[in-house]
Amino acid sequence: MKKIIALLFTLCLLVSCAWAQSKHEKKKNLVVKEWRQKADGKDKFFDQQITYDPQGRKIEDVEYASYGQKRRTVYEYDGDSRLVKREVEYDDKNHVVRIRKFEYNADGSRKMQYNYKPNGTLISVREYEYTYK
Fold it and tell me: Could you tell me the pTM of the whole model?
């Protein structure tokens, strides 16, 4: 019975890894553009663009308004990791507004988030706690 359970667990793990891999495979070098328009079909405008790198990781997210770029966020990773190491947020004039740095637990869940001003001054810290019931 224990062997069957171990075999089923291993099979589920392999299937979930393959699904996660294929999900990221689809996003390699992908650029997603979103358009918004009113219900009457008028006033269509460019709303958002998300860019992914060759490994399928989100590297840039640009939000637009009628006047142009509203905000832009750039994502940085540590090597080949899928975990975001740093986010830099820019305003409509492409000036840095906020920098976020992240720490993770051994299982990949987010542990800490540090929020900085553009000059490097720490604004706040967010700590994550996970409780399973």
Answer: 0.73
Q: 28-60 burial, b if ≥16 CB within 10 A, otherwise e? A: eeeeeeeeeeeeeeeeeeeeebbbbeeebbbbe
Residue 94: CB partners within 8 Å, gap ≥ 6?
A: 69, 72
Alpha helices in the chain (DSSP H): 2-25
Other residues' Cβ atoms within 10 Å of the Cβ of residue 91: 13
Residue 32's identity, in one-letter code, is V
Distance CA 28, CA 31 (A): 9
SS3 call for 19: helix
Greater pLDDT, 110 or 14: 110
Q: For the chain, what percent of residues have pLDDT higher than 70?
A: 81
